Amino acid sequence: MKSTVKTAGIKSRKHDTPKLSRMHLAALATLAMPLALHAETTPDPQKLPEVTIEGARTSDFQIKKSANEKFTAPLLDTPKSVTVITSEVISQTGAVSLTDALRTVPGITIGAGEGGNPVGDNLFIRGYNAQSDTYIDGIRDSGSQSREIFALEQIEVVKGPNSAYGGRSSAGGGINLVSKTPKAENFFNGSVGAGSSEYRRVTADINRIINDDVAVRLNVMGHDAHVAGRNEVNGNRWGVAPSIAFGMNSNTKVNLGYYHMESDELPDTGIPFNNPFSTGANVAKNGDGTPISVPRDTFYGLVNRDFRKTQSDIGTVDLRHEFANGMVFRNVTRYGQTDNDYVWTQPDDSKGNTMLYGTVWRRANTRVTSTDSLANATSLTGSFVAAGIKHSYTGGVEISREETDRSSYIFTPGTNNPLTGTTTCPTSGAATLYNCTTTVNPNPFDPWAYTASVSPARTNVVSNTRSAYVFDTVEFTPKWLLNVGLRWDDFRTTMNVPAYVLSGVTTQAQRAEVDADFTNYQAGLVYKPSTNSSVYVSYGTSSTPPGNDGGDGLDAISTTVQNLAPQDSKNYELGTKWEVLPGGRLSLSGALFKSEMNNARVTAPDGTTQNVGKKTMKGVELGVSGNITKEWQVFGGYTYLDGKVANNGFVNTGTTAAPVYAPSPYNGNVFPTTPKNSASLWTSYAVIPGLVVGGGVNYVSKVYANINNTKFAPGYSRFDAMASYEVNKHIALQLNVQNLGDKTYFDRVSSPHYAGVGAGRSATLTANFKY
């Protein structure tokens, strides 16, 4: 491996992403101009008949049928909680990343990076870690990354056990990203935006018909911005996503797509907690467990050291053939590679420095990782009538291989305090080699100068999966339907750490292996009081085997957990869905649910990990999307989550020689990363033709950062606003103001050491072009 020496920061070994200047952004914008001008000035060839789905959409805020073919009924008749974030919602709210868009859906918490948890899209759904449950067009998207939205048509959030749909999965749910693909029409959509905190963004979306059967589409994006209220934190990224479709006017269609995105940023450090002491002389100095009270722009990182560079490349071949009887055969092959390299300062409070000395240890979390994945999915979808009963079905097989290589950076000298030889920081400054800094007014430009190289300790994880599934919606009568699904998975993952020498010490090779097969199922009975409504009761299961993350997350394979069984969960749900007002233009939904995990992994008193824990989650969900009137659109919901650690195992309250076992003191505690109450609402109104005003609110109650329930981020409400004006049929201007009240809040809480700081007030003005 290549080592890099730098005294004013560290250079990634994989790829260097130059910072996007105004010239770069302008170049990305002009990249699309020849096609755009051609679309505007050249007469169209014969226009292909537009492909539509009956009843698929009634408003820009409402989708009536999932893009996922595993849903064999319209969303109204699907016995599961599903939220679809449309492109219009994404556009109006000013979202520019996946996490931005997901803030409009209550019940989802954005997690923070940690030592074993990479910086990236760390999602928790209904209190369960869903970091590995993101899919692109139904196929798992592996590797830690921060995802963009410039090439997405919509985002589908499925809540509840996800294993029947996706295989190894969490009990909380999953995210399906629906890609933009070529259409049977010529168009050019673009945007140029500028704003506070040095915000600059350009996008272009061009679709062209080549002939009767071929169309192409190109999406490009350039983005550069600082984070409002966090002066040093910034990032830039660019991406391109071309695709081409063959056979658009025939029974056999082939879509070829490619996605590339690179980012370069200075990652945020967050704010450490007021560390609470449970016993001893320091209890008098106890903190209250909330983030420490410092100005919002306080940054504990090192500008001359910290960085994060990512790169994603995904290629897809999607083949579809429609038979004369309406049955559809589909085969999708996808190859992807993601890189995630960083050195990121975590303000670690675990040693009590903040409360004891008014200092912070600059813990250097590092990662050098690359994930390659290859997947193939084959399915048959159709419907038939047998004995007077209609069946709408899909069935298929999936195979995949994921390989992750992971290492880290090492520094000479190390990152401990040289005065103590540990992470304890009674003092700070040059004498500590700037590894310790002050709690108040830390200097992010401290002259930190080290030699850095990639560690010889390298972890390689290979995961192979084989799956088969079938789903069927059985329509006994127009009022009674039964939705059933069954999936079998064979999951094998292997970890290898070759022997290596570091500082003259030889570490022996390690190997761990998980070989698990599991079957999951779901069943839901649907009663339709009317054609525009449904009431359902459903049951589903989920399996989370050791090594679920494929070697790049919290649920890593190790020698400690390799012999454990998959964690199994089951979910009960009672819900109702209604499409009201003329044309069913407004969708309403509500659900009561309960999930149980009876073999959760816990640490036993002897230090081993065992499947003896129990977790329970009870909750309520409400949702709304669509049009109240022709001019008035709404999108939002409310989620109540009552998550309990019912059984966290036992602890030894005696001695090693004379152990005394007692129930864990954490039994009955609240799930970490789980707000009891969360709600969001986005609404917009067309005041006059061409002028739309909108606003939104996000509310999240208190969130605990640890299972001890001693550290937490307070609840908050954030308000946003938007106004757009259509200058003419081709140009519209849109103003977004995020965090209107400039509220200081903490929106990323999953580490017990620090909380992520939400962005301050920002404003952006975007010119949207449409031809």
TrEMBL record:
Q: What is its main location?
A: membrane
Under Pfam families, the record lists: Plug, TonB_dep_Rec_b-barrel
According to the entry, every stretch annotated as the TonB-dependent receptor plug domain falls at 75-173
Topology with regard to the membrane?
A: Multi-pass membrane protein
**Keyword vocabulary terms for this entry:** Cell outer membrane, Ion transport, Iron, Iron transport, Membrane, Receptor, Signal, TonB box, Transmembrane, Transmembrane beta strand, Transport
Q: Where does the record place it? A: Cell outer membrane
Would you indicate the residue range of the signal peptide? Answer: 1-39
The superkingdom listed in its UniProt entry is: Bacteria
Q: Does the keyword Signal apply?
A: yes
Give start and end of each TonB-dependent receptor-like beta-barrel domain.
272-740
Q: Family assignment?
A: Belongs to the TonB-dependent receptor family.
Question: What PANTHER family would the database entry show?
Answer: CATECHOLATE SIDEROPHORE RECEPTOR FIU, FERRICHROME IRON RECEPTOR-RELATED
Q: What is the name of this protein?
A: TonB-dependent siderophore receptor
Species per Swiss-Prot/TrEMBL record: Duganella aceris
